[in-house]
UniProtKB/TrEMBL annotation:
<feature type="domain" description="DUF7802">
    <location>
        <begin position="2"/>
        <end position="306"/>
    </location>
</feature>
<protein>
    <submittedName>
        <fullName>Hypp745 protein</fullName>
    </submittedName>
</protein>
<feature type="transmembrane region" description="Helical">
    <location>
        <begin position="147"/>
        <end position="170"/>
    </location>
</feature>
<keyword id="KW-1133">Transmembrane helix</keyword>
<dbReference type="InterPro" id="IPR056704">
    <property type="entry name" value="DUF7802"/>
</dbReference>
<feature type="transmembrane region" description="Helical">
    <location>
        <begin position="119"/>
        <end position="141"/>
    </location>
</feature>
<feature type="transmembrane region" description="Helical">
    <location>
        <begin position="191"/>
        <end position="210"/>
    </location>
</feature>
<dbReference type="Pfam" id="PF25085">
    <property type="entry name" value="DUF7802"/>
</dbReference>
<keyword id="KW-0472">Membrane</keyword>
<keyword id="KW-0812">Transmembrane</keyword>
<feature type="transmembrane region" description="Helical">
    <location>
        <begin position="75"/>
        <end position="98"/>
    </location>
</feature>
<feature type="transmembrane region" description="Helical">
    <location>
        <begin position="291"/>
        <end position="312"/>
    </location>
</feature>
<feature type="transmembrane region" description="Helical">
    <location>
        <begin position="37"/>
        <end position="63"/>
    </location>
</feature>
Amino acid sequence: MMLGKRLPLYIMLCHPVFNYVSNVAASRLKLGIFPTAYTSALADCVSFHVFDIIAIKLLWWTWHDTDPTIYERHFWVPFTSTLYRLTFSPTFTLFFYGTHKVMTGKRMLQAGSFLQETASILLTGLLTFPAAVATHFIPLYHSLHDALGASSEVCVLAVIYLYILIVWVSDRNGPEEARPRKKGKHPWKDELTLVVLIHFLTFAGLVVFAKPESIVSTGVHEPLGPCNETVHFYNAIGQVVSKRKYLCPTDYDEGYMDFHCVHGGKAPPGVHHWYTICGTPYENHAEYITVVWGFCLLGLAYYYNLLACSGLDEAPNKKHKTN
């Protein structure tokens, strides 16, 4: 944990993998920067969603119980977690490829000089967060959810449908180079394919064999404390919202965890940032398997079409053999 316990290491270690794999896979459609960003966002989202579902059930992390932004859930995963991937991923891609194009004048995955690539990375890192909030999260979530009262689920579905439409319309008129399999063999069995297979097969196995009720997690969680203290803050469109300052041990709605494995079977008294929580059994194991396997199959099918049925990676000094 870094930056005042606000930056879990999995964000530093796992998020770049999701971004890289989805971006390179999406670039093989040869659709240009704008459609590629939303193709990548869908790939990123389906990859991360199975991770999200399993992670919360196995107590790899926990969510704040009363934060209004993450209150609406799907298998204990906030809809806004999915929306976060759908909005920040394309913004990152647009800035990454856009600044690269401006700096180097080259195509998306063709390398420029060290200084050009460094400038592109720095600009992308500095601009992605504020731009994602202003251009995606506010119009696609806060304006619909907070201002107009739409549910988070509706916001997420609307964004997914919009992205599918963008990708479908763009791909209908895709370039000939995006379909090399029509002319011969496609060398798609590479490291990206292996990463995708390992990812989805791992989570397909975890949902079957992992025993969440036997998990004991001791570490940093939502601060535990008095039930009557609240904090007020502004959301992204200036509304004042509130949440409990602490997790209330006698009145919380987080069905993936409890305190049955703790001495005395209840949370310790007082204020605690570091404490022990216990996993809970599946309410309906078959349902979890169906959902996770469904997303895994969807992800495998989507990535197969990107990796095996689309174009080749950009290579300035090397041509792929396609006979």
